[in-house]
Fold each of these.
Amino acid sequence: MLPVRRLVAVVCGLLPALACAAPPGDGQAADLTALSIEELLAVEVYSASKFVQKTAEAPAAVTVITAADIKAYGYRSLADVLNGVRGLFVTNDRNYQYLGIRGFNRPGEYNSRILLLVDGYRLNDAIYDTASIGGEFFLDPDLIDRVEVVRGAGSSVYGSNAFFGVVNVVTRRPQDLDGWELAAAAGSSDGAGARASFGRQLENGAGVLLSVSGLASKGKDLYFPEFDAPATGDGIARGRDKESATRFYGRLTGGGFTATAAWSERVKAVPTAAFGSVFNDPRTQTNDAQALVDLGYQGRLGERSDVAARVFYGGYFYRAAFPWDQPPVTVNKEDAAAEWWGAEARLVAHLARHKLVGGVEYQDNYRQDMRNFDVAPHFSYLDERHRSSRSAVYVQDETTLGERFLLNAGLRYDHYSTAGGTFNPRLALIVDPKSATTLKFIYGTAFRAPNALELYYSSPSLGSKPSGALEPEEVSSFEFVAEYRPQPNFRLAASAYFNDVRHLISQGIDPADGLSVYRNLGQVHAKGAEFEAERAWPGGQRLRASYAWQITRDQDTGTELENSPRQLAKLNFALPVWGDALQAGVEVQYMSSRRTLAGGRAGAYTVANLTLLSRHLAKNLDVSLSAYNLFDRRYVDPGRPEHVQDVIAQDGRSFRLKLDFRF
Amino acid sequence: MATLLPRLSAGLLLCPLLAASHAAPPGEYEVKAAFIHNIAKFVEWPAPVANTGKFTLCVAGEDPSGGAFAGLHGKPVGGMVWEVAMTGARANLRDCRVVFIAASEAANLRRILAALHGSQALTVADSEGFAEEGVMINFYLEQNKVRLEINADAARQAGLKLGAQLLRLSRVVTHAREAQ
């Protein structure tokens, strides 16, 4: 920060006649009291010096990332946001990004043990159960107001997938935009993106928000030593990392009702020759589309209770092309289409010492189709069409016991047409939620129902057979959380947990016939401890630092899980360099080494990112310049079963310039 | 000389931009102090202040404002002048016109409100959940702007009348909202 200040000081010193900027901190607030309340409401202040307090009462360890963080650290995707959160880690195979939590991020799986909610809408799809966090996530990151990461077993309220945690994305409201926003970004790998959004709340209270955005990136040429032979272009995948995406989002609010509709589509070339496909073939790509329509109502019911209800439609459409050498070379296509509708209702009642929550949910997955075929000569390997449903009922009671204790007890019953019923409780005792030191003792169980991929994806010609009946996976989780908040702008948190994971659904080979099949096979124990410090200063500096230690053990083999780092450390520091005119956001992330599928190690690494943000550079214009992997560290993520590569090299240094204009 | 000229013109451009944009965002508590000053004009107290000419703002607990509240001291308000008193949480707050309850007093909140019961003090705070507990006016931040929530029941019980304009511009809280 010093060089910039010095530069400005030097330049200003050269030109005294121009009456340059006074140093910060002078009493510029002198006549604020002359403003009216309406005018005061429009005044923007330095970023929040306080954290959301409700996390103290939550029956879990919670981290909240805000829109200000997304700007300050130049986050390009939900994956970037989550990778900055204590204990979370994202790996990238240049097709998708996979979210790890509590030591779990098994190669070959698709983000199914974390539940992703967007304004309460469940995003995990009805075939792969995937929580999409990369370019295929339907929401432009600029439309996020905050991301709440709630750790631990959450099935007692949220049902399936809330296995190790819940990620709740809250979007910005029409009144938060209050006009037009235009954004444009350009990156150093020939990538570019643009967004146009409009939001406004009308006089009558109704609000409208519309947004369209797109991105396209050519990607860099990548070298894969595994394919370094003259026949495969010396291992260089040329332009095979390209990506493009389009996103539409609309929202209407008024009178307690909210209507949301969205459509997104992402196309990603796959440079890794995954699934035995031909290396460097331009036809290799995956296409992910998401659709949603969500109608919700929130309102009062009598004096002491609130009611919320929604009906929704969801769609997920996957189309992939992987050319393979039969011989001859033919394009193999994989399609999946899931469509569902559902309804939910929830009642919250505030009684004398109790807060009662009760709810019901129903979802009809009326289309769960999967196909796999060769184009020419045509050959169908798989053509599965299914339908399933789930229903659930839950209740939770938060009891105040005297001045010092809060007891949170919840129970939920889920029934799946495919896998039967399961009960999941959670019991949390929260000590002194209102004082500087808060302790939480939490026990809960969670489950994940077998998904359509695991239940139905099989083809003798592809060497796999149907799984028959599968049970839900289960986890029993014990957690202790301590939080210390000596001041509103200073928070220390520590937690320790033990997870007993049973009936893990895993793909294995049946020794009887050599066919691959999904079974409830594994049992894994995981334990860990996490520490976090958050601090904000009146001058606008914000710090978040965390360290997570974790260890996983497969109870059958006695080994550690693959892609399970023992240690994660994160540092985020945002500081004003020159008031609001220039802020710097520094991010440093450390991950210890991880075991790979072939028994090797993906080495430990430390990566630093830097974002310089100028808010109000000109009227209504924000400009940011980000450098990712600032020191150009070489690091790798473990490969997956579909890869020849045991490890996959990640991006070196790259840059992004972004402009945000409001009017 | 040939190299100095472009540098000078860059300076010409840079300085006014930095100067103008730096003046834009005031501190959070300067704005909150201005709100308190303004809000006082929209509140009708049941009885006039004792004839001291002072309009007292008491800050209960650790003053978070970095001097912004103290900056109101001596400013004219409705024919009187502000008197700002930094008090411990245990001090007698009943004679204060406005009591700002700092976040440091979260654990003592119920006790402070009980002690103020039957007094005419307008209670103000800026901590999540305080309005639900019975604080009349609670500040919160939204998109880096200061917003108000009002517990109208609490004000009514103390005999204070909040102006319609104030209610229109605020979020009205009656009982505990849903936490998580």
Amino acid sequence: MTLSKEAKFYLITYLALQSLLVLTVVISFYPLGAWGVVISLGVSTAKAGLVFWYFMEMRHNRSIIFLAAIIAFVWLMILYFLTFVDLWGRPAFG
Amino acid sequence: MSQPTSMETVSDPGSSASMPEKSLLGMWIFIGTEIMMFGAFFLVYAVYRFLHNKAFEEASTHLNMLYGSINTAVLLTSSLTMAFAVHKAKQQRTRAAVMFLALTALIGLGFLGLKSYEYYEHWHKGYYPSSDAPEWLKHTAPFRLFFDIYYTTTAIHFFHVLSGICVMISFIIYRPLAKTKQWARKIEATGLYWHFVDIVWIFLFPLLYLIGRSK
């Protein structure tokens, strides 16, 4: 059985995703303090990026679809940014 | 990054406002509303973890990391089979597409099975609002908060997976009644939804299961 180019792409993406899963579990056992959250979220973002780019076929979209796909995420980042500015800016909470 | 040269089965280039694009655009707008809903949950988690980091880390160690890891691997596998189903549907190889779709639904059911078993274990240990709850959970508000967020997010995710499986099964049944091309578009949109649900779990898993493990 010969694999098509697309099938190979999917399989490589899949192997990368599973490797990142192992990585994130292994890293969680190391005492990294505040960096633990940053690295863990970084690995998750990389995994989400692989799914978004390869499985959701974003690499073939450069148009209005791309805009629709990322705009909700952009609004959300504004919400997160403003909330954390508030939390960090109030010594009573920190 | 090199682009694949044979693109004829992937999309129809040149037709910028074609039907496939419209159906995908619709699905992406729906996913946008989902991103904002789950985003609000993640914000609630982030704020309370910021305020009660130590308690969240301790509460997290009461979850079974092995179940969470297996379920992540299971869901990633279902995303692979879904990608194949969409790929085959676009090539109009519907028999193979139906097979991969059924496989995806089956793997999704595996995820739900393990998650249900995990909930059953929580029930036995008393990890729910009741007088039978263990002392550490009963008397510490941030621990209860962590479990509230855990149940809310995983349960909503659970129903998303369940909905995805129902949609897949109905499209398998509906297959003989539909035109091949139209059916392929529906499968492509379903695939986007399924991958999105996978992405939600990709973030839920480390935030709920993996914090406080290094202590």
Amino acid sequence: MATGNKLGRFLGKEGGINFETAVNRADNAMQMIRPEVEANVDEVTVEIGERVNRFPAKPTESQLRDLQKLATQVAGLAGLYDRDDLGQAAYHLCELLDLDLLCGRYDGAAVCAHVQTMLLLRTPDRFKALDRVKMVAALRSLVEHARQRAKPQLAALDRRS
Amino acid sequence: MTVTPAVLKHNFNFEKASVLTVDPSQISTEVMSLMLNGFGFRRLFRCANIDAGIEVAKLRALDLILIDPYAFGGEAYDFIRWLRSEKANPNRETPAIIATAYTDIRMVTNARQCGADYVLNKPFSTRTFLERIIWVAQREGRHSDLMAPSELVSQAGSGMELW
């Protein structure tokens, strides 16, 4: 099915720019939006906390999916400006919610641990770098525990795909 | 991760390339647009939902499609599948990159098989993003069946790179 590639015709063009120039221009442009992105990450993190506080004992699938969408936003943006730990915590929350949804259960304590950690990580200088790494590692182990519990469902999913 | 010499040696001019972005998040769209502008892209069609993306794909000749499926679930993958299946559509062979922070475990196979050229983890650096764009630009119109060279696959990041 080799039919060529439309985007490829823009490579090797006279009068164009090189890789390093393009990266530098984009990096400079990215600084313009930094305050806006950081404020957005902060707002969404707070909203995640508020939503979980309002959850009933057994939240619906729709509520969990909406929470996962918010966590995905944080996971996608936080690491852009040196907030990798917050982004990773949000990513682990996405994983945990996915596993909970797959198993049809809600591990409220584990979700709260993620959300509280995210709220703590909102302030970048509150903890030393090594402590932040340990906090994220603790969440990773909670997700691993959930993955072990979801083994039968994950195996069934594998068979289907 | 290092930049390959093959990537570094190319000059490029994306000024006349048309890009469709489909992402419900306004701030994510802004971030991606700024990066694309820095790379020299000027013709951006920014859509917040799949239906708007389909309309643009029907009416415009596109050179690159970027889509974040997080809010759309299976619909996002169906969009790319639809694009690849439309024999009369001029965008049938347009490179498509899925840019996402998290892929639902039920959607991993879908993401692999929908016909996208690459699944890229968010957040990504400008360097990584441009490397992927150039990588898909260099491909020969084949989708979902090639492995990215190992030097282009990030071992860091919070998520996973499927290619």
